[in-house]
Design brief:
alpha/beta; two-stranded antiparallel ribbon
Length: 382
Amino acid sequence: MRGCMGGIERTIPFKRFALTLRRCVALFCMPEKIYNDSVNRIPNPCRRKIPAFPLTHTLSDLLPDKFRRDATGRLINHSECLALFSPMKHIPPKAIVETPITTLKPVSYDLHTHSTASDGAYAPAELIRQAHGAGVTHLALTDHDSTDGLIAAQAEATECGLTLIPAVEISTSWHGKSVHIVGLAIDPDKPELQQGLARLQSQRMARAEEMGRSLAKKGIEGGFEAARELAGGGMITRTHFARFLANQGLATTVRAVFDQYLVQGKPGYVHTEWAGLEDAVGWIKSAGGIAVVAHPQRYKLTGSWLRRLLIEFKEAGGEALEVVAGNASLGDIQSSATAARRHELLASVGSDFHSPDSCWLKLGHLQELPKDLTPVWSLWND
């Protein structure tokens, strides 16, 4: 293989060339920040051909013609490039469809977001403005165990011309695991729903106080007070404690704080028994809403346990599964789509947006919902 760098023609060892191609293939599945960082590490001559994010090119577009010729001088196409050089080379070339490869792109619906009414970074009105600017036309505000942000969000949505789906994300305990159930298109004024949420809010306050005491025993004072201040009158969540601990320099990132202090077995963890699955679905149904299992892959359930969860969820009156969720991988989406088909559930999409600091979760930036699934919004668009 021969290439050109700085005007001087040189030979590129085949193994290094193949590695470069594999790196090019890997770029198609990367988030924007990691993509851009990775491009800078691709050696010439391939780097000159790498397009800016988002990608709409095929692998063969990335390579100079001289590197795409076989022994007879014929140009090899995208499928043949993949078959020869990528981690997908075990797939027969005929099984690879010659279509442009796309990445995350804005969609009209984002049905899982958070504001300062729970653990989000944006006030409800600002969240609406940001979503509108990102091209979202239908947004669900799904704060944890609270509907307090919906009035301000609706006022701003009316001003922007964005359709707000009133919603909530309810914490449940199911066989020792915490499972979140989103309620979409709810009437937030229904008393049964609000009574249930009030109970969960009391539990959250009690948990926050206990977390503060637990951290104090480890020499970390002022955790509860700092978390309450960060919450600004909204729900106190583990995220507020994580921000406090990160600000204290106890970990480099909020995610690292969770792993070191706030998960089971760590000093800031407090076990809480949330609402039952049947109760949460019942509250949502009483408010005229649609119950959705949120981010199913996050629970790390085996196939048999996931089937059991979805069977019990559907028996309780649940109707949908969040198939495209936050930073779910393509494999996660395919697995969730299979579960939705098997259990005849509607499909939802949601970024689970909390903060602009997360490069993984962006408002309205989601993979496409598989075409054969029935979207949950078909219920309120009929």
